[in-house]
Specification:
The protein has about 290 residues and is of the alpha/beta class. It has a domain of about 150 residues: Glycosidases (TIM Barrel), CATH 3.20.20. The protein has 8 helices and 8 strands, in the order H-H-E-H-E-H-E-H-E-H-E-E-E-H-E-H. It has a 3-stranded parallel β-sheet with strand order 1-2-3, with helices on one face. A 3-stranded parallel β-sheet has the order 4-5-8, with helices on one face. Strands 6-7 form a two-stranded parallel ribbon. Helix 4 links the parallel strand 2 and strand 3. Helix 3 runs parallel beside helix 4, helix 5 packs parallel to helix 6 and helix 7 packs parallel to helix 8. It is globular.
Length: about 290
């Protein structure tokens, strides 16, 4: 869940939490735990929304206000989104500037809430290489959980092996750096459209139909998740968009734009039931892993 800087501090020093108070309270009442995403730049603090702020202290102050306000309800925070992708972090510099910001935020966050867990911004482009660069830039010890976005096209038979390969590559890099962190897929998904159209392709190729999307959800939350013991998977997104991306990403939802349920919604629901059942058998006293967004 985004806690957008541009929403919260539209004017320097003036904070408005009304929107996020409502959402956090609603989710908390319904026992839905939050992974908070802290990003992007606000116009008065930098050249563009996807550029680091002119002064890191501006960003750290915003982060501090958010964590302080919600530390009794939100314990997981992801710092920026896809900082290794030029669309979301510009200019690209080999993760140097981002790692510096991550380190500063980590230190401040732990001062405010020692029990919180910090995730790096989900890595999305050349994921293993981006992770190597974080370590090369001194990022070891400044994230508690590794966040990656291992998107693949499920129309290809190598879908599962590709996801597992990215996971294993990250594990290897961590071990080479004397590190061992849990890995969360804080974004993964694929479009499910009623019918193929040239307008609903996405960056990895043709869109899936709704039944194929449901099959991918089922494989992720059963076959893949069962083999990755320290992983959690966050499906992107809950609801279809309407002409927002103007491509297949508009059909990533588990439900359609009118909230009618797609086959993927039922597949997710079935996977939750299956995971609950197997978890209760194997680990009756442990919290459910992988399905709940926590």
């Amino acid at each position: 869940m985004d806690f957008l800087w541009e929403d919260i501090e539209q004017e320097k020093g003036k904070f408005n939490f009304e929107k996020y108070d409502y959402i956090v309270n609603l989710l908390t009442r319904n026992n839905i735990h939050i992974l908070g995403l802290l990003s992007y730049s606000v116009f008065w603090a930098g050249a563009n929304w996807n550029c680091p702020p002119d002064d890191d202290e501006y960003f750290i102050n915003y982060v501090s206000k958010v964590i302080m306000r919600y530390k009794d309800r939100v314990k997981y925070w992801e710092i920026w989104n896809e900082p290794d992708h030029e669309q979301y972090w510009a200019p690209q510099d080999g993760m140097v500037r981002y790692t510096l910001l991550l380190k500063k935020v980590y230190i401040k966050a732990k001062q405010i809430d020692p029990d919180c867990k910090i995730l790096n911004g989900g890595l999305a482009k050349t994921i293993p290489l981006s992770l190597k660069k974080i370590y090369q830039n001194g990022g070891k010890g400044y994230f508690d959980i590794l966040a990656i976005h291992p998107f693949v096209n499920p129309l290809y038979e190598s879908d599962v092996s590709r996801v597992k390969g990215l996971y294993n590559a990250c594990k290897k890099i961590m071990q080479e750096n004397g590190d061992d962190k849990n890995i969360w897929f804080t974004e993964i998904g694929a479009p499910g459209a009623k019918a193929f159209s040239p307008s609903n392709t996405w960056w990895l190729g043709d869109s899936l139909n709704e039944e194929q999307q449901a099959a991918w959800v089922r494989r992720l939350y059963t076959e893949v998740l069962s083999q990755l013991s320290d992983c959690k998977i966050f499906w992107a997104f809950f609801r279809d968009c309407k002409n927002y991306w103007n491509n297949g990403v508009d059909y990533f939802g588990l439900v359609r734009g009118d909230f009618s349920k797609k086959p993927a919604f039922e597949a997710y629901k079935e996977a939750v039931a299956e995971w609950n059942k197997s978890s209760n058998i194997r680990r009756p006293k442990e919290k459910l892993r992988g399905i709940k967004p926590y």
